[in-house]
Amino acid sequence: MKVEFAPLNIPLARRLQTVAVLQWVLYFVLLGQMSIAITVMLIIHNYWFLYIPYLTWLYFDWHTPEQGGRRSSWIKNWTLWKHFKDYFPIHLIKTQDLDPSHNYIFGFHPHGILAVGAFGNFSTNYSDFKELFPGFTSYLHVLPLWFWCPVFREYMMSIGLVSVSKKSVSYVVSKEGGGNISVIVLGGAKESLDAHPGKSTLFIRQRKGFVKIALTYGASLVPVFSFGENELFKQVDNPEGSWIRTVQDKLQKIMGFALPLFHARGVFQYNFGLMPYRKAIHTVVGRPIPVRQILHPTEEQIEELHQTYMEELTKLFEEHKGKYGIPEHETLVLK
């Protein structure tokens, strides 16, 4: 295979975009593990004056990721995130106004490999979120295990990420006065194993916890579909029933997160690497589904609202797929 190298005369803006995305990929792939390793080394070598104060702080601060986090406007405004957004580029599209006196749960689909559209649109200050949804604050929920990593967890919270636990989502949508949006990548780790270019497979039929929370607190549900999310990486073929998929499923159940075998392009060549392809992402926010508060919803009420949500999600996909390069015959697969 002939290697296709990046040309030398690439504009500075594009190089800055590549650097921004590279640090983000490394941030997810390496920094969490490195922070744990560094903490262990400090303990082994008995640098108590470093780890004792921090572990004490960690003990008292442990539940902050479930209580709205601790965001930093300075970090969320880093120019780095503008370059990150422009690399693909990432777009946010609104289909209907929302009432800032209410709280909402955005169901984000699909997960893709790294949920790039969710991060770019709802975690940094360089998307069009503030202009499209004035008066709202978004909280992007991620796996709780990310907040088990010392020091790294502080960086996670500084850019607006919070835990996806029931307690965390409930905290956001129960806040008085409205104007709060919980953004949940509903397919989660399991769905990432189906993130293949040209496919639109969602793991949603068994995901009903968000519906129960919406009913309990009267938070409106909003389906969100991010067109282009599955085009950013290629994944080793892993159909259900294959030995690769069997191993991945078992590891996902044990560890709580999936290990998709993905690749895309490199930094200085375009044939192979962990850098995502430069593919446009269009994240479309659908129509809100009004939810009447029911403190103790029944299974029937949860099932009914869940069915309505899946119908609205399918409508959103069908209404907009033609605008963003999805063939007319392509349909959503809901698993």
UniProtKB/TrEMBL annotation:
<keyword id="KW-0444">Lipid biosynthesis</keyword>
<dbReference type="GO" id="GO:0003846">
    <property type="term" value="F:2-acylglycerol O-acyltransferase activity"/>
</dbReference>
<dbReference type="GO" id="GO:0004144">
    <property type="term" value="F:diacylglycerol O-acyltransferase activity"/>
</dbReference>
<dbReference type="GO" id="GO:0005789">
    <property type="term" value="C:endoplasmic reticulum membrane"/>
</dbReference>
<keyword id="KW-0472">Membrane</keyword>
<comment type="pathway">
    <text>Lipid metabolism.</text>
</comment>
<dbReference type="InterPro" id="IPR007130">
    <property type="entry name" value="DAGAT"/>
</dbReference>
<comment type="similarity">
    <text>Belongs to the diacylglycerol acyltransferase family.</text>
</comment>
<keyword id="KW-0325">Glycoprotein</keyword>
<keyword id="KW-0012">Acyltransferase</keyword>
<keyword id="KW-0256">Endoplasmic reticulum</keyword>
<dbReference type="GO" id="GO:0006071">
    <property type="term" value="P:glycerol metabolic process"/>
</dbReference>
<dbReference type="Pfam" id="PF03982">
    <property type="entry name" value="DAGAT"/>
</dbReference>
<keyword id="KW-0319">Glycerol metabolism</keyword>
<keyword id="KW-0808">Transferase</keyword>
<keyword id="KW-0812">Transmembrane</keyword>
<comment type="pathway">
    <text>Glycerolipid metabolism; triacylglycerol biosynthesis.</text>
</comment>
<dbReference type="GO" id="GO:0006651">
    <property type="term" value="P:diacylglycerol biosynthetic process"/>
</dbReference>
<feature type="transmembrane region" description="Helical">
    <location>
        <begin position="24"/>
        <end position="48"/>
    </location>
</feature>
<protein>
    <recommendedName>
        <fullName>Acyltransferase</fullName>
        <ecNumber>2.3.1.-</ecNumber>
    </recommendedName>
</protein>
<dbReference type="GO" id="GO:0019432">
    <property type="term" value="P:triglyceride biosynthetic process"/>
</dbReference>
<keyword id="KW-1133">Transmembrane helix</keyword>
<keyword id="KW-0443">Lipid metabolism</keyword>
